[in-house]
Input
Amino acid sequence: MLCSTCRLRPPVTDDGRCLLCAGPAGAAAPMSPAPMPPAFIAPQQYLRSPEGLAKAVVVLLTVVAAADVLAVAAGQNTRRVVAAGLEDDFATYDEAAASLADNLYATAGALQTLVSLATGIVFIIWFRRVRLNAEVFDPSMQPMRPGWSIGAWFVPIANLVLPRRIAGGIWTASAQTNADGSRRTVPATVMNLWWGFWVVSMVASQYTTRQSWKAEQPQEILDTTALVMGSDVLDIVAAVFAVLFVRALTRMQGERAALGMFPLGTPGVPGREGWGRAH
Output
């Protein structure tokens, strides 16, 4: 139970107000302090709704998938043009069609880069938000400090492992509790599929990019373009599972916040709307 006025501190008066809200009159004759709920979190730590950020991430991930589809189509067009030239040893090679194919392929690649960068930034902001909420839910479940929710993505090699470790702690802490106070176990299948396909997609992208830089002969261009298209398909699958992961974790945190055991921010703090204040 929290103060009936500020909803931040335990009540100390008969009318349910805390020491600060009661003022000098309440301080003169306080009631015996109410026991602090075991799940009470220090007032400076608040839950903030990740729902707005989650919606932005989902939209951007959808755009990423669309850009990948465009890149696959551009790659297929490039393969068609090059293959047509190989059939007659480029005797009737269409230079205009080849130039158009190159431009479409380059444009699709540039669009992929820009959209992926924007999505990565917003995703990490969302990831930090849910990590901070998990600190309020259950800090004992968090294997690393909150700052690593950002830093872990930028450590070479380790960024293939650390973010998943952090996500696991967030997932566990965000699982809704049962009526008897026990933790509900939520299968992490969606999270594991997202992370698995994302890692495979990243590794494949690095490999195919290096191969495409070395491709000079027509047959090499055909082969590497096919590899890049395969990498783009993996990225589409990873984006789909990322959407499912973001939506699932955001929903889980909303359900856990609805239990009413945690302070949900202060007036005027962005992100408070949508969840309201706990009682």
User: Anything to note?
Assistant: Residues 25-44, 266-273 have pLDDT under 50 and may be disordered. Helices lie at 19-28, 51-87, 95-137, 148-151, 162-174, 189-214, 218-257.
